[in-house]
From TrEMBL:
Location of region: Disordered: 1-20
Biased composition regions of type Basic residues, renumbered to the chain: 1-11
Name of protein: Large ribosomal subunit protein eL34
GO CC field: ribonucleoprotein complex; ribosome
Originating organism: Suillus placidus
Transmembrane segments: none
Pfam families to which the protein is assigned, alphabetical: Ribosomal_L34e
One Gene Ontology molecular-function label: structural constituent of ribosome
Similarity annotation: Belongs to the eukaryotic ribosomal protein eL34 family.
Taxonomy, superkingdom: Eukaryota
């Protein structure tokens, strides 16, 4: 007959915060080891994909690692993915170009209207 294993925490329900694994000790007893929650990777704020180069940790564990491990050396480093940063730069450039074109057309119309 299999050995009985008792819970070590007071929480009796099978929830995500009380995950456990049966482990055999060196003395031959079976005991529960309570497992920590699995970390999720930080996501890009625009498209929602996982950020490459930033480790997946539990929220409190980010306080213990250095800043260079939490970010990537780029504008919007630990917040947006490279593709989204690229599209933002491109959009900003095109908006500025559109403003310049608008200004040129307006000046040409002004010059053409006086003649």
């Amino acid at each position: 007959m299999a050995q009985r294993v008792t819970l070590r925490k007071r929480q009796p329900y099978n929830t995500t915060s009380s995950r456990r694994r049966i482990v055999k000790t060196p003395g031959g007893k079976l005991v529960y080891h309570h497992l920590k929650k699995l970390p999720t990777q930080p996501k890009c704020g625009d498209c929602g994909i996982g950020l490459p180069g930033v480790p997946a940790l539990r929220p409190r564990e980010y306080a213990t690692i250095s800043k260079r491990q939490k970010t990537v050396c780029r504008a919007y480093g630990g917040s947006r993915c490279g593709d989204c940063v690229k599209s933002r730069i491109l959009r900003a450039f095109l908006v500025e170009e559109a403003k310049i074109v608008k200004k040129v057309i307006k000046s040409q119309q002004k010059a053409g209207g006086h003649k």
